[in-house]
Amino acid sequence: MTDNTSPAIPAARRILVVDDHLDFGNFVRRVAEKEGFHVDLVDTAASFRDAYRQAQPAIVCLDIVMPEEDGIELIQWLIGQQCKAAIYVITGHNPSYARAALEIGRSQGLNIAGVLQKPVSLITLRDVLSAAGEGRTAIAAD
């Protein structure tokens, strides 16, 4: 995780990505940084919790299927944190997992902005980031 305590980074431009596949996470990081975002990338649920508390990100990219703890457990944790971030649920597995996370999160007041199915294209990711950067978080991918 990188240090994001610099006051030069607007809160609205902070993204926290949790994905156990670091190749995908680094893809998101590269694209987001080119779009002017500051990105923290983690690969476990425990490191996600620590990074979330430190960064207070405006956007969370959350992989659903991970070892040890899955994204649905993190969704439940975010509910307890009263998370206000726009959350993009990401999966490379059965889309029903992501839809379940979306339903659970939204029913409890989380801003589940959408679902992205891996592999995510460069164009789709740029569109999502552009919308998020403008404060538009609903995306067609859900």
Q: Tags for this entry?
A:
single chain; 142 residues; Rossmann fold; 5 helices; 5 strands; disordered N terminus
Biggest sheet strand line-up: 2-1-3-4-5
Described by the principal axes of the CA atoms, the overall outline is globular
pLDDT averaged residue by residue = 88
CATH architecture: 3-Layer(aba) Sandwich
Number of strands: 5
Described by strand count, sense and barrel closure, the largest sheet is:
5 strands, parallel
* N-to-C CA distance: 28 Å
Number of structural domains: 1
Regarding CATH, which class? Answer: Alpha Beta
How many DSSP H or I helices?
A: 5
Structural class determined from secondary elements: alpha/beta
Low-confidence runs: 1-6
- Rounded to an integer, what's the Rg over CA atoms? 13 Å
What does this structure look like?
The chain has 142 residues and is α/β, with parallel strands linked by helices. The chain has helices at residues 22-34, 45-55, 71-80, 95-107, 122-133, and strands spanning 14-18, 38-42, 59-63, 86-91, 111-117. Helices cover 42% and strands 20% of the residues. Strands 2-1-3-4-5 form a five-stranded parallel sheet, with helices on both faces. The chain is globular and about 30 Å long. Residues 1-6 have low confidence and may be disordered.
